[in-house]
Amino acid sequence: MVLKKRAKQVRVIPGYRLTFGITVAMLSLLVLIPLASVLVYSFKISPSEFWSLITAKNVLSAFGTSIVCSAIAAFINAVFGLILAWVLVKYDFPGKRILDGLIELPFALPTAVAGITLSKMYSDTGFPGSYLSSIGIDVSYTHLGIVLALVFIGIPFTVRAVQPVLEKIDGQYEEAAHMLGSSRRRTFWKVIFPELFPALLTGFGLALARGIGEYGSVIYISGNSAKNGTQVVSYVIMQKLERTKYDEAAAIALVLLIISFVLLFAINIIQIRHAKRVSLR
Question: What is the number of other CB atoms lying within 10 angstroms of the CB of residue 150?
Answer without folding.
Answer: 29
